[in-house]
């Protein structure tokens, strides 16, 4: 196994049956990756789409990732972010004790994100 020195940022989304649903998340992944080429920026899903978080992390660890930050790209801290994600991360920590995991708050609760969304919404009436 590679030494665990790389950092990864995982954008964690819900998932949907329609593959088109993931397109904005893929664009976000590309934007973040282009702004931070030194990071591994990946997209993972809770359900209905691949890769799911438990599938992705072992691949990242095998490539030398030892520091993982998970950003829930959810509008709020609902049950998936408050219950499901911590359980998944606990299982991943147990399976990969040498890896550091951090969970950020839901992206939709950030004041800058909400401000950008408000600007967009107000722009819709022009």
UniProtKB/TrEMBL annotation:
Pfam family, one: CbiX
Keyword Membrane: no
Keywords: Lyase, Metal-binding
Coiled coil: none
UniProt GO molecular function: lyase activity; metal ion binding
Source organism superkingdom: Bacteria
InterPro entries: CbiX-like, Sirohydro_Cobaltochel/CbiX
Listed CDD domains: CbiX_SirB_N (cd03416)
Keyword Zinc attached: no
Record SUPFAM superfamilies: Chelatase
Protein's name in the database: Sirohydrochlorin cobaltochelatase
Source species: Herminiimonas fonticola
UniProt lineage: Bacteria, Pseudomonadati, Pseudomonadota, Betaproteobacteria, Burkholderiales
């Amino acid at each position: 196994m590679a030494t665990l020195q790389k950092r990864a940022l995982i954008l964690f989304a819900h998932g949907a049956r329609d593959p088109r649903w993931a397109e904005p998340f893929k664009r976000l992944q590309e934007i973040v990756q282009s702004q931070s080429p030194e990071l591994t920026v990946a997209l993972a899903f809770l359900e209905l789409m691949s890769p799911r978080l438990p599938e992705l992390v072992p691949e990242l660890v095998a490539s030398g990732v030892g520091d993982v930050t998970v950003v829930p790209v959810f509008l709020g801290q609902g049950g998936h972010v408050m219950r499901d994600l911590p359980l998944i991360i606990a299982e991943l920590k147990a399976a990969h004790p040498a890896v550091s995991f951090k969970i950020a708050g839901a992206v939709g609760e950030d004041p800058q994100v909400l401000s950008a969304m408000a600007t967009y919404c107000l722009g819709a009436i022009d």
